[in-house]
DNA sequence: CGATATTTTGACATGGATCAAGTCTAGTGG
DNA sequence: CCACTAGACTTGATCCATGTCAAAATATCG
């Protein structure tokens, strides 16, 4: 099958852990579900895992048994289609929850894999839900995190449904820029995204070829620069209008 | 693609119909947030509202101040674009939560309006969250409801990103069919959806013209029938394959 | 029964997909 | 240090699914 080129690009992003160029970093605070809670509760076993870039965290249909917070690195969740195409559902950044996208009945609705090397802190669902049912605050934090994810997903729906290729690419890059900013602070106009054009294609529902052309045009128009993971929003105002 | 993975399992909900052609119906139970709780808590004022078809429940950017359960009728949430197009984000069916799609900071992320006449049971956010923080079960139910919405949204993302017009239409109609079934029970192959081709177009990101052509073709191929809101899935197997 | 929305049909335009090379880059091994 | 290689990125030529515009047919409703 033609899967090869579409599925493996990640494997080549495998820059090693904890280097300055790559976005692997420690994370002290997690505003989604308090990691202190999370780590305390996960105390009945070794629950922090380090995984290499390209690792599969879970596959579509796997048992729905564990939730994680991503402490470091980037991951993605995606759905695979028979024709070999995949849709990237969301990019998972440090501090985000992952593993709640399933149900007891049907297992995980989507697969997840590490884009860079990652560090995960995970716990059994049974325990997670038990904790939720004991602690309203914890459950509320969880609900808020999921609401945030849902809002991102709805934005994505809007972009995919109504926008041109330009708009979808702009939308995605601006969103990622904002999320990275929110995590890292600072205001260097350049941010580092460990993704390539194939990721953008799979997230926006375009072909890599057309992503390339679209980026080229945006570059020529002075909207942004994106090369080897370095993203600079040159004209945020005009970009926002496009998005 | 396996149908099961595309369509989130919606736990079966209540029953009881009020008028035969129109989907307005009484609702005894709500598995998302227990309406008994909901109504009890909303006791400090008249909180059940009846609204006519076409009413605006809230607009994009409105204050984020109230959540509702939809007791009867259909509603939709949508995002409007400058060019006049709109993206329907989700269809809200009896038993669903509505009004949690926003944040204190930015207000409601999307607008909502009634498709049919609706009955809403609503309460202030402040009270809703207070109740959540006192009752883990309530908070958990809320979290589960939100998770279900997020999964529907992700399905929608996958459909919009990777599927042809046929696939998107099939996807939407099959999903709605299942949701209605889950609510109404029974197994009449025909279900009543109070939507028209324009709704389908706005939800799938197509033009009404092309929706029409697509439906015509599917009808000719013996896949389904959809006319004046009456939907019959003639060949669910093949439809699932298309979707 | 006229007025207004919805659905259907046709002719034509176009954004993006597809196919096919070619170039550039970062690893790898000698 | 260089040659080799496999991905990733570019570019060009061509095709087709879907959008756009226009108008007729049909349903809905006061």
From TrEMBL, chains A, B:
<dbReference type="InterPro" id="IPR036390">
    <property type="entry name" value="WH_DNA-bd_sf"/>
</dbReference>
<keyword id="KW-0805">Transcription regulation</keyword>
<dbReference type="GO" id="GO:0006355">
    <property type="term" value="P:regulation of DNA-templated transcription"/>
</dbReference>
<dbReference type="InterPro" id="IPR014710">
    <property type="entry name" value="RmlC-like_jellyroll"/>
</dbReference>
<dbReference type="InterPro" id="IPR036388">
    <property type="entry name" value="WH-like_DNA-bd_sf"/>
</dbReference>
<protein>
    <recommendedName>
        <fullName>HTH crp-type domain-containing protein</fullName>
    </recommendedName>
</protein>
<dbReference type="Pfam" id="PF13545">
    <property type="entry name" value="HTH_Crp_2"/>
</dbReference>
<feature type="domain" description="HTH crp-type">
    <location>
        <begin position="163"/>
        <end position="237"/>
    </location>
</feature>
<dbReference type="InterPro" id="IPR012318">
    <property type="entry name" value="HTH_CRP"/>
</dbReference>
<dbReference type="Pfam" id="PF00027">
    <property type="entry name" value="cNMP_binding"/>
</dbReference>
<keyword id="KW-0804">Transcription</keyword>
<keyword id="KW-0238">DNA-binding</keyword>
<dbReference type="InterPro" id="IPR018490">
    <property type="entry name" value="cNMP-bd_dom_sf"/>
</dbReference>
<dbReference type="GO" id="GO:0003677">
    <property type="term" value="F:DNA binding"/>
</dbReference>
<dbReference type="InterPro" id="IPR000595">
    <property type="entry name" value="cNMP-bd_dom"/>
</dbReference>
């Amino acid at each position: 099958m033609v899967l090869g080129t579409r599925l493996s690009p990640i494997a080549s992003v495998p820059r090693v852990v904890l280097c300055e160029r790559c976005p692997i970093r420690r994370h002290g605070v997690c505003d989604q579900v308090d990691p202190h809670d999370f780590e305390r509760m996960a105390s009945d076993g070794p629950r922090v895992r380090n995984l290499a870039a390209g690792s599969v965290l879970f596959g579509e249909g796997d048992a729905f048994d564990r939730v994680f917070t991503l402490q470091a690195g980037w991951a993605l969740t995606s759905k695979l289609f028979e024709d070999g195409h995949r849709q990237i559902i969301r990019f998972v950044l440090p501090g985000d929850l992952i593993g709640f996208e399933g149900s007891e009945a049907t297992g995980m609705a989507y697969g997840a894999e590490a884009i860079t090397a990652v560090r995960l802190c995970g716990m059994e669902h049974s325990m997670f839900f038990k904790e939720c049912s004991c602690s309203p605050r914890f459950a509320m934090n969880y609900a808020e995190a999921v609401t945030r994810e849902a809002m991102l997903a709805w934005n994505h729906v809007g972009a995919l449904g109504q926008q041109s290729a330009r708009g979808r690419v702009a939308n995605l890059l601006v969103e990622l820029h904002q999320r990275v900013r929110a995590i890292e602070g600072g205001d260097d106009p350049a941010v580092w995204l460990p993704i390539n054009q194939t990721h953008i294609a799979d997230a926006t529902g375009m072909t890599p070829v057309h992503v390339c052309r679209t980026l080229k045009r945006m570059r020529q128009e002075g909207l942004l620069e994106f090369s080897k993971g370095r993203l600079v929003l040159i004209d945020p105002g005009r970009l926002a209008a496009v998005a």
